[in-house]
Design goal:
The chain is α+β, with helices and mostly antiparallel strands. It has one domain (2-144): Gcn5-related N-acetyltransferase (GNAT) (Aminopeptidase, 3-Layer(aba) Sandwich), CATH 3.40.630. It has four helices and seven strands; from the N terminus they run βαβαβββαβαβ. It has helices spanning 10-19, 32-41, 84-98, 113-121, and strands at 2-4, 24-26, 46-51, 54-63, 68-75, 104-106, 142-144. A hairpin with a 2-residue loop joins strand 3 (46-51) and strand 4. The longest helix is centred in the middle third of the chain and has 15 residues, at 84-98. It is globular. The two termini are 27 Å apart.
């Protein structure tokens, strides 16, 4: 079952992220406070998938009103191969489309080959004409598992 994430889902979502070896988190954006702030801004575009009474997948999506973005999509390793990731992507894209969004972007770490294949199979093409740049406004600590 796909449904909107609620604040009460945070602990299970964080545990799910920790179960994904390709996931990289940080101590600010992925903290309870950071995720709840994101959820408050994007209550209609953040989804969890429930299987066997637990959160099996999650996808955070948001919008600036012009473009949509997908952040931290993941499925617990033991639930992969069941179409959960695809169902989460479809739910997010359907909602973003309904909100008038015409283009959706995401970032995949270069060493995440499985993630790249997943997104390419769903129509997300790599852009060779862009260079991603960022400016850190507040120092954070990367968390890898």
């Amino acid at each position: 079952m796909i449904r909107n994430m609620t604040p009460e889902d945070y602990d299970e979502v964080y545990a799910l992220w920790r179960s994904c070896p390709e996931m990289e988190l940080n101590n600010l954006d992925d903290s309870r406070q950071g995720v709840l702030r994101f959820l408050a801004r994007n209550p209609e575009t953040v989804f969890v998938a429930e299987e066997e009474g637990r959160v099996a997948g999650v996808l955070l999506a948001g919008s600036d009103g012009r473009r949509g973005y997908i952040y931290h999509a993941g499925v617990r390793p033991e639930f992969r191969g069941r179409g959960i990731g695809t169902a989460l992507v479809e739910a997010a894209l359907e909602k973003l489309r309904a909100l008038g969004i015409t283009k959706v972007g995401l970032l995949v770490f270069r060493n995440n080959d499985a993630g790249s294949r997943f997104w390419e199979a769903r129509g997300f093409a790599a852009r060779e004409d862009l260079a991603y740049r960022s400016c850190v406004l507040r120092e954070m600590t990367r968390i890898q598992f």
